[in-house]
Amino acid sequence: MHGYDLSQNAGLKAGTLYPILTRLHDRGLLEAKWQESGYSGRPPRHLYRLTAKGREFTQEQFADQVQLTPAARLQGSRA
Amino acid sequence: MIGSETMIRRMALAIIRQALRLLPHTRSEWAQAMLTEFYYLDRDSDALVWAGGCLIASITMRIDAMITGNMKISRWILAPELLFCFVPLTLAWFDGIFGMSGIIRLNMEIIQQYFINSTTGTLVLIMMLALAILGVLGPVALFAACRLIVTGRSLPRNLPAMVLITGPIVLGVIYVTGWLLTGTEIRFDHWGGILLFSILPALGAAHMYYVYSPDRNLSMTS
Questions:
Q1: ∠ Cα B43 B48 B50 (to 5°)
Q2: Does A2 lie at the interface with B, CB-CB under 8 angstroms?
Q3: Are the beta carbons of A12 and A22 closer than 8 angstroms?
Q4: For an engineered disulfide with B99, which of A9, A12, B95, B160 has Cβ 3.0 to 4.6 Å away?
């Protein structure tokens, strides 16, 4: 996904998004490469993709987050 | 869209270009990435918001580069720090050589009349000579600091570095000894002089030597 698309999907402005992307990239969680534009006269764009390590990391984060939601805790107490 | 260059787009582009200059050179690829996204934004309002975001991102990344927590330090901080350490000694040395009471204005007649014939005069002459000889470390250190700031090359190792560190300390010791022997009342401004012309240059040289020595595998952030 490209920077602007990521920004729109995540609801983050560039000012928040890019420092996050650079940190993820520095930690080897994100892969970035240049992709030629499909439009003539426009420069290549940076394309971002999670690495395998990044996918593992996100899954762990999501798992932790689900466990911490009130609904999940409620379900846990009922069980 | 590249074709339609409205005033807002030109303004947004100018903001982005200025913002990206703030980024460390190690982030140049990210700067290019943020800039190229701009060309895919069709609406002026999006372009302007994107430009504002780039400005904030650049500032954030610049601050990240400056806060390293392992004794690395940005040139932006190093430059004023080292100037503050070495400029006072450089100016004092220049004044001690070429100033109104500079050593080049002395001749044998003046030396005989005012300095040689009394203990106090001799001690003052020794202090002046010490400033002329050891004070030259001020401009030398200033040159080394400028080289470090501009090129990132560290201080020459061992002996030259030790001379730059110990020289100002020796100068300070000579001055304090001279004041004590001549019975000069050491006031607050005397200690200020010791701080500016002795302690700070020594600390600055030590900083250049220890923090930026290549053996410690510490490099400077841009």
A1: 95
A2: yes
A3: no
A4: B95
Interface contact flag, A42 B50, Cβ < 8 Å:
no
Q: Using one digit for the tens of pLDDT, what is the confidence trace for B165-205?
A: 999 999 999 999 988 888 888 888 899 999 999 999 999 99
By CB atoms closer than 10 A (0-12, 13-18, 19+), residue B184 is middle
Structure tokens at B35: 């800039």
Residue A65, min C-alpha distance to chain B (Å): 27
Q: Read out DSSP for B109-170?
A: HHIIIIIITSHHHHHHHHHHHHHHHHTTHHHHHHHHHHHHHHH---PPPHHHHHHHHHHHHH
pTM: 0.48
Query: Which residue on chain B is closest to A25 by alpha carbon?
Result: B30
Residues 6+ apart with CB under 8 A from A38: none
pLDDT tens per residue, range B78-108: 888 889 999 999 999 999 999 888 888 888 8
Taking residue B217's Cβ as centre, other Cβ atoms within 10 Å add up to 6
Structure tokens, B9? 């787009």
Task: Pick A19's closest partner by Cβ from B2, B29, B57.
Answer: B57
Query: Taking the domains of chain A in order of start, what are their residue ranges?
Result: 3-77
- Which residues of B, range 38-57, sit inside 8 Å of A by Cβ? 39-41, 49-50, 52-57
**pLDDT at site A68:** 62
Q: Which residues contact B89 (CB under 8 A, 6 or more apart)?
A: B135, B137, B138, B141, B168, B196, B197, B200, B201
**In a 3-state reduction of DSSP, which class is residue B94?**
helix
Q: What percent of chain B has pLDDT over 90?
A: 27
Whether domain A3-77 has CATH 1.10.10.10: yes
Residue of B162, B166, B163, B170 whose CA lies nearest to B131: B170
